[in-house]
Fold each of these.
Amino acid sequence: MVETRLIDVTGLQSLLDALVARGYRVLGPTVRGGAVVNAEITEVADLPRGWGDDQEPGRYRLRPRDDEALFGFAAGAQSAKPVFFPTDELLWRGRRTAGGSGFEAQSAESAQAAQGGGVEEHGEDGPDTRPTALLGVRSCDLSAVGIHDTVLTGRGFTDAHYAQRREGAFVIAVACSDPGGTCFCVSMGTGPRPEQGRGAPFDLSLTELLAPEHRFVVEVGSERGGALLDEIGATAAARGDLAAADAVTEQAAQRMGRRLDTDGIRDLLYASIDSPRWDDVASRCLACTNCTMVCPTCFCTTVEDVSDLSGESAERHRVWDSCFTADFSYIHGGTVRESTRSRYRQWMTHKLASWHDQFGSSGCVGCGRCVTWCPAGIDITEEAAALRGVPGSNLPTPTSPPTPASE
Amino acid sequence: MTAVAGAGSRAAPRGDPFVPRPFVVRRHRQDTRDTWTLVLEPADGATMPFAAGQFTMMQAFGAGEAPISISGDPARPEVLEHTIRNVGAVTRALVHAGPGTELGIRGPFGTGWEVSSGRGGDVVFVAGGIGLAPLRPAILEVCADRASYGRVLLLYGARTPEDILFGDDLRRWAADHAVDVQVTVDNGQHAWQGRVGLVTQLVDRGGFDAVNTLALVCGPEVMMRYAAMALRARGVAPARLRLSMERNMKCGVGLCGHCQLREYFLCVDGPVLTYDVLEPLMSRAEL
Amino acid sequence: MQTITDYLPQHPFFAGLPEPVVALVAGCAVNVHFRPGQHLFHEGEPADTFYVIRHGRVSLEVRAPAGSPVVVDSAHADDVVGWSWLVPPHRWLFDARATEETSAIAFDGACLRDKCDTDPAVGYALLQRVVQVMSTRLQSARIRLLDVYGAPV
């Protein structure tokens, strides 16, 4: 039996206060630089109140809403990925010993511990060791976190840095009420409503209701989540509130901006290895790597070695990488994937096909970010439909009239 | 779920897989004009057991890291032997690391040859260039248990007679362990008394019972493709034909994504994979 | 003493040919022997012989103005040497030099061509086998052209 509660906007503030009081660094959506991004927040006023967004291939614009919704926008510019899987991670530090012929290397944990800190990022007053509470995780992104849990901690070798960040994190999901023009979580079976057992677990999941009063139905996903609600005096949700919450996500599900036919998608991609469509997409793709940077599941990294001028000490960092670069597939003799055609094929085949073989799920959660943030407006749902040879199968559902891709 | 299965048994690295362990160079030998062999011992004294065919990530402090196959004897885990070709900045620093120098080692990583699964039948090693180095541990394994195998052939192609690796080993394996060692070169000088031609021609004529043969192939990918075709034409089953693949390996533990060949992470699912898996993947460019 | 007709079916080049065909072509053949260093033929000379190697080793070489000749191919027991006897203008394109004691069977090229012309079935059977040899050597040459083991050092 799912346990549900009800809080109002004041209650949401109490929730934030209680998390801060428990020592969490609370990250949540806020407006910066004309986009919704995740940043440290302490107050409800930090949230994007009254902001929605317009998202189309190659286009993202904030749009003022005619209501006071705090979560009335679709997928923000970044997912939860950078929170748990930072763009730059120190792997180890080392220094030369024994007159230069030897060396010592310390793992990031012990190197940090020697300086009195953990592996969290450095604030102005030294390393920030607070555990993270992440507010506003959408259902698609919750699935993406679940995928990262599998990729980075569920196999032979574990990414200890990621595991440590995930372990202490408090996750507050939010159901989508107003999906964007590039959203297709329904196609990928990842949304729009966060469900326990689908994707990473959440502690609490909010559904925002705007009328008659501004309030949130809260689904309790964990004991500590329930305890937190007890502490702030959250009441039980009435049957009418639950029905209203259901209606929010049911309507959202009907308003997906995009659709992707996943039937036999793995075999379709494998069979499309020689498709002329790759040449077509390559003529538009800039190989800029944007899609891989905003993708909540892309996990490829490279390493960078940094040494001081004397060469006495060195650090190794792991940084995000992208299969769209020439260096990515470099071996002695040259680059394996020299053409943009082959790089796009690799990315899309990995997302929709080989991911199934590797991790038992799709690598795409339908968040639409790769479509929105592509400067050329390349649309993975359109490319998939083209490979299927069904022109127009990408047409948005009737309730969401098509918008020109370029303006 | 990881649906992709590797070839099986492997030795796993100790501790944090991202942090290199210091190994001291004990011996340093130049094999050919561009290839050196380093014999290393762990600075902390802890041995590093490995399976023939596995590799390590080797680094010279501050110079970066490169994947290098282990070329030593799996029965002697107390020393770590690497045969390295000088082809870039990292390998240049590695081959010039003289005795006493400490190098950083992560590993061992990847799948092994599992040559012991060929017991009771014939074994054909097909090597091209530096590809003999990753096969050497498996050949040593066979030589140590020679009676368990039928005919054993080493078919080895090199660029020129001067590029032939492990000359002493080749003579010893032939003389003491009844290995049919056949060497061919791409270009022979006037004085060269051996074969000139492609290594696949040795496969065509090799004296082995194809239906009861385990074939292990290592070399440049182009050479491996044609060697595999020649072995298939002789009748070696695709599942009994193993190749060691090279792709960009950065982490060694299947986390960085670089070495993917469609669904395979070659650093953990490979580098050794069977031809039934590889054939469709090797037939396309830029995969 | 084994006759040429007895021996030929044991050689991979002739293995599987109908007995009458082997007997027919054996009429064009004689046993030959080369000492190390002795040439089978030289580049540019009329190509009137087809060699079937029984034992030994033969280098196919290209001479350059300076330095030693480069060995571009080698032939060994069970190999054959030479197809220029079949291809106009019937001139050798390389030097062939024995580097070991080498015994071979030498076929008269004109005699073979005559047999092939007279009986196209014999000609086709022989041609198929020659093409197989050419194909193998062409593949070997093409792949070696890539210099796959080569070093950009």
Amino acid sequence: MTDKKDHDPHAVTKVTPPGRVVALTGADGFLGRNLIGLLEDDDRVSRIVALDVERPATAGRKTRFYKVDLTQPRVDARLAEIFASEQVDTLLHMAFLSSPTHASAWAHELESVGTLHVLNACRERPVRKFVLWSHTILYGASPRNPNFLPETHPLRGHSESRFLRDKIEAEQVVASFARTSPGTLVTVLRLAPILGPTVKNYLTRYLGRTMVPTVMGFDPLMQFLHEVDALAAFKLAVMRDVPGVFNIVGDGVLPLSTVIQLTGRIGLPIPHPVMYPIARALWTAQLSEAPPTFVDYARWLCVADGDKALNELKFHPAFTTREAVLDYTHSQRMRDARLLRTTP
Amino acid sequence: MARKVLGNDPFGGDNPKPAAPAAKKAAPAKKAAPAPAKKAAPAKKAAPDTAKKPASVEKGAAPAKKPEGVWPAPEAAPVAEAAPVAEAAPVAEAAPVAEAAPPSIASVIAQLDALLDQAKDPAESRPLLDRLASRLRSLVQPEPEPERALAVDAPAAPAVHDEPFDAARELLGSDYYLRRWGQTAIRDRSEEVDDFGLDPDYARRWQPVWDLLYDRWWRVEIEGIENVPATGRVALVANHSGAIPFDGIMLATALRKEHPNARTLRWLAEDFVFHFPFAGAYLNRLGAVRACQENAERLLRKDACLALFPEGVKGIAKPYRERYQLQRFGRGGHIKLAIRTGTPIVPVTIVGAEETHPMLFQSGRLSKMLGLPFVPITPTFPLLGPLGLAGLPARWKIVFGAPIAMDAYRPEQSEDHVLVNRLNEKLRESIQSTLDQLLRARHSVFKG
């Protein structure tokens, strides 16, 4: 509140028409951090409200940070208070984990219940626009999937996977919020797995292994999204008012074996009957980056159709799937040779 | 070309090897990388000195340059206790001294150079050397010999020969062979595939096999290929037959070999092949796509030449006595699709495939165990193993009928069930009548 006096004169002198106030939950995540950096440079945004437990390092002059923990019970009232005092116009809800965790109870509180808190705050003090970060992996990998999953396809992610289930629950409550709150534009961006030079998630760790385990006899087509395109999609969603669900994906597909070849790694094919027990054991021993339910993604298709985002959101990915893999590979090789710091 | 650049260069990605096994062996600390650089610098510095002062070298006052010659000399009294060791491996042992005191090493070397420059005369150099020795002792904890420290200036090259197996060990230790293995596993694959996973390089590699089966084994005869339009979307609707279906691949081979435009055929394969290892991945690379409305529509909207087998599994799972009896044509999904996308349908009749793999009986228990819709027992298949997949050399005939235009219908009419059903039955009857006609005209299964 105190620094409001310092900020407002600047904002008024710089942006003649009053710009938007964009709030981000999970502001210190990869997407949040980089989006704050992008929005800081954008004149159409007058103020950024960063909500997280840690202050993002990219927070600049326009950013105001509030320490908010979505796992706390009374957080919805606090959020509503912040929305009202900051006059939040657009809320980006990105407080999700990018990789599966063993602390699944905490993850459930943060993702599933945390989304409920955020939506309750939005009901109490409506925002004009609500943008949700979601994933195409929620469709679930299956041999019965069409090659390109449309947005209308049901989310059939593995029911045993807490990681997927929490996110599916979050999407469901957001969908019902969109139905019951006509005053708020709700945009859901389902992002393909993100690859890029600086991003870190379960996928970059999986492809960063010397021997990359694959499932023998299966070579699914993979689809990735470059980190720059991921940020561009969120920026588009902030700037354009396009409600709805969108698959945000890179162009083109690559078989998993080709992806591994491009990254200069070696595939280690394991027959699928033993793959699941091995994956379970490694996950229990905390030696692997993803639970055994993720083996499905190395067996079957989970590729989404990005045409709707292209036509309605006008999202043109700058990087194809292949280019995203190559860009990731370049910096991964630098990291391998210890020429690049592992944490960007 | 990215293959060359990325990842497969066996040595390109390695750290620059610190080229000094002696240093590696002796180094107490993990300073392998900086050590050679620091060693190289004084060596270079020493070289011009030698060039500048050839006279002093000849006088024998350059202990650093000729260690073996100088050290055992009687005048080198303080060296006496160190002499045997110094003789054994003067260069190799020098490394720890150089490395043990990394912070002040540059200053010591500078002093050393200065001292050596002064040392014109062996007698004169004595006190200097003593001073240096004490200086180094104070610097280095594990009691180094000053004279050996001097040997730092000598080039360390001969020490490389100490490790004859180093290169071999390096080769085996690197992941070079693993990478070769990784490359071999996908040596015949393209770097890019199309949206539905067709791998052109992989498909080309398998073409000789299909050509052999097409030309020699089944001696496929073609009729009416001109009915397949040269460009634009087209749906080939064919009867599905033979317990192990090769009709998709043979149709693709026929279009590639006989069609004036050599059209690439995509065909829809039953769901169940994608449940299983190898089959789904393999067929996908060759051009098969999982049969579903979304895939078919997307392909046709991209003006593909698409083959459909509306009978599905029912067509291939029927026993031999029901050969050439068309089964139900699904629920007319292919007609709806053609109406919606305005795609002309070319009815295709395939004769001969039933006799290639006559299904004697199905193994119910085995199919339940494997989760397959049926496990065919044919005269050749489980008996002859993989070779039995080629089946019997029955002669094939493929007839492409006149195209049925679907432009007359509006896309909304794809939901008109009566119309769809009628068109579907008409299509089925036309293929059945062509089948009957061809069977009547055929004299022998194997000679045609």
